[in-house]
Amino acid sequence: MNPLYVEIKTPDGKKISSGDGNATAAPADPRLESGNLKPNQKRTGKVPFDVKLQPGTKAVVLNAGSKIAGEIDLA
Known about the structure:
The chain is mainly β. 0% of the residues lie in helices and 24% in strands. The chain contains no helices and 4 strands.
């Protein structure tokens, strides 16, 4: 798992990474740490984004090949 593999997709299709805007300066405790996961293993933490939450906003999780591994509805 790597926080760089998480991005936000807005309702209009725009993709926003955690490095965009002021997100790197935002407080997020505990931050999601990078690391390898074994089957059925979980990791928790926060990844800050500089984006207004709107209905239809999704968190997109990418795999190491930058392909979509999953999407989570946020609003």
